[in-house]
DNA sequence: CGTCGTTACTTAACCGGTTCGGCAATCCAG
DNA sequence: CTGGATTGCCGAACCGGTTAAGTAACGACG
């Protein structure tokens, strides 16, 4: 079964290669009758365009890129990346675009990947996650001219297209929740402060606690279950200890809950726990975990749509996706007397 | 900054396009002096080969494909896929190959993707996960001539290259573990029996329990935390109830543990729980979970290496990657009296 | 010294599309 | 009825590589 090319279609339809190309791409230059005939022949022969050939002449790769700077191990553990990728794919499936996913070790490797992709013309655009404060990826992408949608706050995006969730409002909601339960000593187990969303939540946490007159502390971690557990152990064995802890993801919250139990304490009786991101994990612990919930899959889908818009000529804009919603579950309660 | 092509290199080095190609690809046909000169010019101009052009003439895409038939949501929750992808990428990073990842809804969509990829010559080979009993993907891949490495038992691979872990031995170890603790009523919360590895574990579970004279039952689920919880609740509220439960992944085991606690029972006092896959989650529950541990990242890496071998002309073989190792943790104990 | 075989290139075709310039045929206005 | 614009299609160049075929120069050998 030899490959079917437009040359073969041209032969069978009795027209030239050029005419076939116009017909197949819905471009003017052929009559409706001819177009129909060509489409019919193409369908009969089950013609599929050759990506490489199209890319070579049209200078479009029909591929988008996504780089994840994480170790392979982390990738398997945190629920965000995969859900996000799933959302991106759900939009892509309806188009002829493909996704090039690259997992690299660190930020320099990520920058190198963008350089490589730009030079090879491998992708038509990229999605940038884990936006940082003073992110070096922004000037690089500008320089090499790769269209991009950033996932993160407009204040960090320097005018590039971005999609964000309102971390400040969400953090306010979380802090107000525990404050309204009567908590005064509140801790935050945060991720790495280089990440923009962590930084923003740090600011919001401090501001909210100041406003509400709370006694707070922040511990920074690398987002892993290990460090979430370690941080929780340190907090809960100190004197005095916090009566509420707000985590930056749900993996750390789950690990934190285990530590609380291991210390012979109970949630919410001894401590109120609030998770972030709300994967199903939070609904399948005992007690179930209060969480700031957002739709990660939908987030990925939204970002992909915005990138498609950008390629369609839309000018770069900041899009608010949604504000994480507080879901109160069994790990919320009043502080111990 | 115009794109640099081999034509430009040829002009500057004072040779023809063809000679440049030979030089850059380490092929005979040019003198060492010329080769060195060409390489120097190419380096100076920061030449990067154009993938599309190379693919068009060489009929290789330098891309491998991986299709995941899962909902976007599931993807974010189960620790296997992402860890596996991470392992695959860790090998790919050392080559010039890229990974095309496609997330689709179901098996028919997955088959369609392979057809499409084969027709477009989009990938040079694919990795096939979630091998099934009588898997329809095997004949399709044979027909369209896509080189593939299957992830699953040789008994299901029909002679195609595959990498597997010894589920039978692992299940034996798990059952012998709980039997040696004195358990006689053992349940298995399994995934969907269409999946080859589930089927193999089902067989092994039945055989082992027969051999050891245990009183067993099997509940099939869709691998989700929800159904893991439901199954556990059904098992633990029945009379008589099992004193040990072996799960097919760790998500269900974690959810099962929560149900046990919610029912006012304790592990291991009232029931011994054994998880499968052993992501870090198992070390961060209270009690920590006994699990059949295997290195998912390494598994992905191994599979990728075998696919590279296959493309290098190795003949299709079955490779045993490793046998999951029993890690005994706090959720293991003797049955209640 | 003629011939044969290597070596080191050059030339040109080719991969499968897109796209531009040009040329009849047709249409319409003057 | 004529001139200019429009329509519909053809032929060819082009994208940036790879590779088969051809050739000139040179050394070895009978």
Automatic annotation (TrEMBL), chains A, B:
Chain coiled-coil ranges: none
Domain HTH lacI-type: 4-58
SUPFAM superfamilies per UniProt: lambda repressor-like DNA-binding domains (SSF47413), Periplasmic binding protein-like I (SSF53822)
Signal peptide interval: none
Entry keyword set: DNA-binding, Transcription, Transcription regulation
Any GO molecular function: DNA-binding transcription factor activity
Descriptive protein name: LacI family transcriptional regulator
Species annotation: Kribbella turkmenica
Lineage: Bacteria, Bacillati, Actinomycetota, Actinomycetes, Propionibacteriales
